Q: What sequence folds into this?
């Protein structure tokens, strides 16, 4: 009866390697000499080498400057008990030194083996992903409140604006002096400008009008617009992933979101030697909020500007928050709202001289996570 139940179980169709490869966490099995016996797909991505290249090599040989990991491994072997370390910085030896290091939480568990000696189970969980998810969930939880506040504020501003503009029009018809009508024209023009700003705060009222679009066509459209707005001396580059598939998106909304981010990058550039890169990539097993997506389009805007001020790091996507004296503080807030309408998100990493904004757009079916 037990054998029949096991055969009927869905797990009977999978071997252990398939189950481990489905994990987002990196899993490595080491022998008693800390040489690689097995590594799942997540670990292979972290090591930047395949299993065949890693098997039989000491794990410390696959990372540059991994003293902290080595100490945890030796402690687990000596004590024959599970040991852990948090936010360990690791640089895969297969990658150039200019590549960004990985920050991981490490757990090492001894696996006693009667014939082959003690083995170690090494788990590598991306610590930056944990921090990013916490930040995203906080931001998404506040998105509805921000949206409500923006719309209430916009409605409060929009009504007196209409009366102000109408009064200025009536006054201009009564004035005989052409010089005085110039002042009413200024009032009307500024009222129109503020109305357009308020409309952008209100955002689109209809659901996204999605259709199958080429993501790179959207990128090229934004690239041409930004190239026309870029000051002299600014370098604009493209780095597209040709494997990126078409996606069901609202073309106009994604163009507007990407354009807002790209314009923000232009305004952050230094006066000399400014550089902006528009990049596309395909990413797998990406978690956005409480959903894990098997396949995601990642559109990035990279610049070498002054970076995001530390005091704005946590509030950058809030409405009316800006680090520029003449900024409205709406560009990134609107971009985040438009991405949220596609179940996506805008995230960023920034330091002086290197800032990357990433627009994440789900391409495949999603699954809920705890």
A:
């Amino acid at each position: 009866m037990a054998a029949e139940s096991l055969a009927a179980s869905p797990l009977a169709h999978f071997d252990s390697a398939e189950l481990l490869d489905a994990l987002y966490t990196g899993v490595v099995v080491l022998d008693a000499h800390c040489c690689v016996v097995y590594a799942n797909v997540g670990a292979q991505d972290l090591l930047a080498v395949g299993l065949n290249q890693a098997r039989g090599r000491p794990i410390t040989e696959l990372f540059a400057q991994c003293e902290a990991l080595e100490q945890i491994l030796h402690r687990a072997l000596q004590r024959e008990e599970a040991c852990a370390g948090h936010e360990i910085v690791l640089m895969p030896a297969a990658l150039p030194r200019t590549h960004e290091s990985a920050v991981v939480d490490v757990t090492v568990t001894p696996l006693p083996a009667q014939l082959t000696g003690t083995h170690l189970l090494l788990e590598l969980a991306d610590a930056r992903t944990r921090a990013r998810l916490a930040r995203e969930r906080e931001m998404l939880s506040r998105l509805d409140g921000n949206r409500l506040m923006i719309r209430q504020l916009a409605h409060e501003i929009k009504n007196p604006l209409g009366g102000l503009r109408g009064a200025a029009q009536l006054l201009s018809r009564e004035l005989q002096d052409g010089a005085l009508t110039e002042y009413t024209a200024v009032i009307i023009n500024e009222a129109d400008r503020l109305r357009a700003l308020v409309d952008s705060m209100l955002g689109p009222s209809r659901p996204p009008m999605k259709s199958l679009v080429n993501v790179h066509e959207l990128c090229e459209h934004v690239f041409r617009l930004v190239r026309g707005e870029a000051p002299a001396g600014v370098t604009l580059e493209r780095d597209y992933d040709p494997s990126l598939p078409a996606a069901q998106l609202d073309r106009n909304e994604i163009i507007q979101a990407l354009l807002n981010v790209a314009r923000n990058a232009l305004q952050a550039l230094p006066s000399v030697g400014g550089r902006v890169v528009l990049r596309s990539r395909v990413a797998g097993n990406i978690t956005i909020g409480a959903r894990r997506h098997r396949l995601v389009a990642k559109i990035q805007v990279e610049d070498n500007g002054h970076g995001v001020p530390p005091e704005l790091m946590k509030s950058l996507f809030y409405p009316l928050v800006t680090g520029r004296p003449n900024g409205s503080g709406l560009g990134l807030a609107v971009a985040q709202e438009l991405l949220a309408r596609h179940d996506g998100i805008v995230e960023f990493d920034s330091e002086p001289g290197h800032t990357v904004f990433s627009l994440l757009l789900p391409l495949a079916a999603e699954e809920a996570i705890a």
The radius of gyration is 27 Å. The chain has three domains: 2-130, 131-202, 211-368. DSSP finds ten helices and 14 strands in the chain.
